[in-house]
Amino acid sequence: MKRALVTGGSGGIGAAICRRLAADGHHVIVHANRGSERAQALVDEIVAGGGSAEAVAFDVTERAATSAALERLLEAGTIQILVNNAGIHADAVFPGMSAEQWHSVVDVSLNGFFNVTQPLTLPMIRTRWGRIVNISSVAAVAGNRGQVNYSAAKGALHAATKSLALEVASRGITVNAVAPGIIETGMIEGSFDADAIKKLVPMQRAGKPEEVADLVAFLTSDRAAYISGQIVSINGAMI
Length: 239
Ligand code: NAP
What we know:
The chain contains 8 helices and 7 strands, in the order E-H-E-H-E-H-E-H-E-H-H-E-H-H-E. By secondary structure, it is an alpha/beta fold. The chain has a single domain (3-234), classed as NAD(P)-binding Rossmann-like Domain (Rossmann fold), CATH 3.40.50.720. The protein has a 7-stranded parallel β-sheet with strand order 3-2-1-4-5-6-7, sandwiched between helices. Bound molecules: NADP nicotinamide-adenine-dinucleotide phosphate (NAP). The site of NADP nicotinamide-adenine-dinucleotide phosphate has 28 residues, from helix 1.
């Protein structure tokens, strides 16, 4: 049984990924920031269904707290599957974007990637098997008005994905990014109504968190051993 950490497991896409990885037989560490109760409820659900899971909470922007939490988790065994899924958006057209909006988004998606991934990499290398999946966005592939901060953070994640993939390729570790389009979660509530989705998405519907989770599950499986350094879009043919 492999140990899998899913950051933002308390959120919409993260929860679907946790359920799917647990169904695949992994021990899932459901991470939350403010939503510890949601993470614990998901752990209870997974365990009640015969799976294996535990909850953990920390703010990925806080390096020391993140390192301390990861150190405790590593005491129980190496984390060989990491899904960097925690993310926020703080949209504004660029002339009106505050420094706080810029930094908060970069802090969670990009600095959070560093804070979580860097301490886990060497232990993963030692086992000669690992899977890292970074959840980015169509905004990093195509750009999006009002999301210069978000697309910059996610685009940097694409570049980091490619560089880290090169560094660890010979150690049995793959590193990929999954770039979702519009997915039905709390994050898009209030941003897109049904008409907007029909105009933006050739498939005329939002994606489901479970559809993203299926892709992540494949990329974290043995079957995807030769796929690394890739940005895989899942967006209903948006681009
Ligand atoms: P969500 O439901 O809002 O979940 C976001 C998750 O990120 C939550 O679990 C939240 O934890 C966690 N998080 C936020 N700030 C954090 C911090 N400082 N430290 C640790 N965790 C933090 O959003 P979602 O739609 O599932 O999004 C998941 C990922 O997919 C994000 O990276 C997002 O950018 C990406 N994405 C989403 C869409 C979409 O249409 N939904 C499209 C493209 C990409 P708490 O709730 O516990 O605080």
